[in-house]
Every structure is written in C-alpha cells, then in structure tokens.
Amino acid sequence: MEWLKNIFGQKNKRIYLDYAAATPVLPEVRKEMEKYFSKDFYNPNAIYEEGEKVRKEVEEYRAKIAKLIGSASKDIIFTGGGTEANVMAIRGVKPGRIVFDGEVHPSVQEAAKNMAGQEVVLVSSVTTDNKLGRAIREKKRKTGKEYPLLHIDASQTAAYYNVGLEALACDLLTLDSAKLYGPKGCGALVVRRSAQISLPPPGTPAVPLIAGFAKALEIAVRDREAEYKRLDSLSAWFAGEILRSLPRAEAVLISPNIINVSIPGVLPELPVLALDRKGILVSAGPACNSQKPEPSETPVRLSLGRFTSENEVKKAAKIFCETVRNLLK
C-alpha cells in the first residue's frame, strides 16, 4: 500500500473522501495496461500482423466487459469516459423530449438542452433497480411503440450494484473507467441492439485505456459485495455522527459510499475549503462543476472508497463537525 500512501501524502496525513470524483489506478490495472504503451503499441486498425493481434485483444477486452455486465460484445461502444457516453446517449436518439431525474450528471442536463417535442423519446436516470425499466417496457408493450428508451448512468454505481441492460431493464447504459479505479479517459456506452440511435463513427481504440478499463471492471465485480457492505457501514456511521453532532445539518446516504451533507445558511464552498486546510478532501457537487459557483442548496459531498479506513472515517467526522460548528458561529 506504499504506492497509495505516496499518492495521498503520508507525511501530512491528508484524508481523501472524494472517490466519486476520481479514483487511483490499481496496480493490477496499471500492469494490464503497460505493454500497450511501448511494446504492443500498434494501431488495431492496421491490417498487418501486429495490428491484427492488438485488434483481436481489444475485442477480447470488449467481450470480457460484455460478460461482466451480461450483454453482447456488439453492445459495447467504447468512449472517452462517462460524460461522452452520456452525451452520445442523449443526442443519439431521434428528436423529441428528454425526461431525467434530479440526480443525473450535469452532462445529461446539458446535452438535453434544446431537445423538445411532444413525444418522450428518452428517460435518463441513475436508478439502481429495474422498476423504472420494467414500467417503461410494459408501457411500450401496451402502446406498441418503440419509445421512450431508458438510459441509466451507472458511472457511480457499477462498483457496488449489478448493472447491465437486463439487470436494469434499460436500453442504454453508461460506464466510466475513472470511477472504478481504472484509467481516466475511457468508458463505454452499452446499447441494446434493438435501440435505434445514431452514433458517431468510431475512432482509433485507446488500447491501453480499454485494457485498464476491462481489468478495473473485473476487479470491481469481484469485490462488489464485500466493498458494498464495508462502505455502507462506514458511511452510515459517518452520517449518524454528523446528525448527532450537528442538529442543523442534514446528512443523506445516496449510495453505499456517498454522503450528501446540507448545512442551512452555509455556502458549500466554505466547508470544502475549510476542510481542505485541515487535510480533508471533499467536494461540493460533481467534480465537473467544481470550478463554477454552486447554489447555496448544493450539499457537501463526501465519498468513501476502496482505501478508506475506519480510523480515517472517525478522524474525518470529528474534524468535519468541528469545522462546521466554527462556520456556524
């Protein structure tokens, strides 16, 4: 674990609680990627032997990802990350109205701007069960229509829930390697073959990133149950401590590893910056919006991860409560 201590700064004991924004690349993932940087660097679109070999390996990684989420290899469209997959899903459907819930990523909201019409052509959500999908399928069966399609952004949930087209009864699925302890800049849009959407022409596959993505997802699925239980317990304790110590605060668990804390009358940037000075790394809303002023009602987001320890959670909770009390004076 020395490599992780070096990343997060063992000397000043900074505690990282922003795993929903970024995760470190696991050693096993990095090892899987290494050979494609200098040894097997060939373009998989080339028709000579070396290129054909790399292309075959890319397809093997595609098949591995498909198997892990219970879909077909042809369903997997590699992207430059979760945001790109979301935009492709939203803008790929036929013209019409897009409906989404309040928890969707900002990229979904942005992509859906100026898309209007009487017919709802797509519903986008971050749900982790299949109730919404089954309800939409039943509605389509009764009406005989192909729409609306259901898109699920599983970027934040693939590490803790069984995600896939059948598991969630959806038509489109977003995955993001960067949220799974894999490399940044890689993800996938999974498209049910019966779904009618327009996709841009594919570019040259980012082979090292695809290799790392496949390995990271494999590890996430392997450890999913254990990590869910461990982080859910730590998050519940953290939220309970905040509610006990800060009666004015509201702490909500929105997944096994994410706690949203709202503090009435306090702009979210204030506790984020104050905690940073005390060695606790948290965020105010999604990382992609972190450079923009957040509305006052935006919660402070604490997200635990694979390397969060019980001692870190206890120390962070104490510092968090002390910091907020000082801000409320």
Automatic annotation (TrEMBL):
Aminotransferase class V domain boundaries: 15-123, 203-315
Obligatory cofactor(s): pyridoxal 5'-phosphate
Pfam families xref list: Aminotran_5 (PF00266)
Keyword Flavoprotein listed: no
Single GO MF descriptor: metal ion binding
Family of the protein in this entry: Belongs to the class-V pyridoxal-phosphate-dependent aminotransferase family. NifS/IscS subfamily.
Protein name from the UniProt record: Aminotransferase class V domain-containing protein
Species of the source: Candidatus Zambryskibacteria bacterium RIFCSPHIGHO2_02_FULL_43_37
